[in-house]
Amino acid sequence: MSIRFNSDEVEFLTKEFHVNVDSVELVKVEGLNKGTRVYRVTKPMRSKVYLIDSLAGMKIGCHPSIVGAELDNLSLKAAIDASLLMVKLGCIKEVNGKVFVHALRAAPGYKLLEAFENLGMKFKQVWIRPRYTKPSYRDHEGLVKKIEIVYENFDNFPENKELCLIKPDTEASGRTSEAILKRTIDVAERKNSEIKSIILYGYISEHGLKHIEKVLEALGVNVKIYAFAIGNLTALYYNKYDMPLYGPDESYYSMHREIRKLGGLVARETFERYLPEFIPGSDQPGDWSARQLKVFNGYGYEDGGISIHLKNSVSFIKRLYNIYKTMPSLQIFLPRYKEMIKKELNLIKLTQKVYG
């Protein structure tokens, strides 16, 4: 069954889920992977925001079945586009010092450092691990939850320099980045260095990006902020964790038994590309560390948790489908969504045979 959405259906879904497709413009960039398109966000924001619509990024964001070595390969392919774009835009050559901030455990899985190394570029590197004081899978909302820094290594942080910080990571609520950036800014001050620009890369929610902007403003730090998002700026669930392109908010429904419709910020061409593969309401990055075979925790490597990620993905997708069935506006799409889900669950089942 070939899954297609016609232009009227695309238009309907953008309006039904408040998907912002009117705040981007195409940026011409030479040398990127075949099929990759870049868009600049024109909506007024403190950050300069670019959306990198690549086939690799689409596969990662639409298919939780992609894990382990396959995830590594696609992440590197997406990161190669991102690193080349950053170089061509000139946003990492404005200062005399560059620092690569590894947010542990998940962020190295974005493969951005490897992509820069393929271009022959080297960076000073620092490591920091923020962690919620209680388990945080699908729950970043609780006000009692605090973030603590459980590991850091700033030994290579430059002294007496003007700096560009490069920080790949998943930006959902923005709270872990708040902890990381506050600590890094403190270290920079002690080293008599000044952070002039910050580059963010990964899956980024509009909510999380705005939170980071407000944090930096409150700290009185006058920096340029560049955000390079994979595919789109995501929406954000009520639980401040899940990051869909569009769809119903499963966490809100599970708590209130009411439908809350979500939509991200994306180019119309990207939205059309994703529609036949993206399960509405699903979390684009997923539990990023749990999709990786091994993750670095500051002291050594440990299992990411692929089998748990796959099991959680199956139950999450099934709950989403049950929500679709309660939504009158989606009944015309239900056979297509059912087929998309069937394909993904089959892929997950095959992946579980490899990873348990």
Q: Top keywords for this entry?
A:
single chain, 356 residues, alpha/beta, 9-stranded mixed β-sheet, two-stranded antiparallel ribbon, 13 strands, 37% helix, 22% strand, globular
Describe the structure concisely:
With about 350 residues, the chain is α/β, with parallel strands linked by helices.
Tell me what you see in this structure.
This protein has helices spanning 7-16, 55-62, 68-89, 112-118, 175-190, 206-218, 250-256, 268-274, 306-324, 334-355; strands at 24-27, 37-41, 48-53, 97-103, 124-132, 147-153, 162-168, 194-205, 224-234, 246-248, 261-263, 294-296, 301-303. By secondary structure, the chain is α/β, with parallel strands linked by helices. It has a 9-stranded mixed beta sheet with strand order 1-2-3-9-8-7-4-5-6, with helices on both faces. A two-stranded antiparallel ribbon has the order 10-11. A two-stranded antiparallel ribbon has the order 12-13. Helix 5 (175-190) links the parallel strand 7 (162-168) and strand 8. The radius of gyration is 20 Å and the shape is globular.
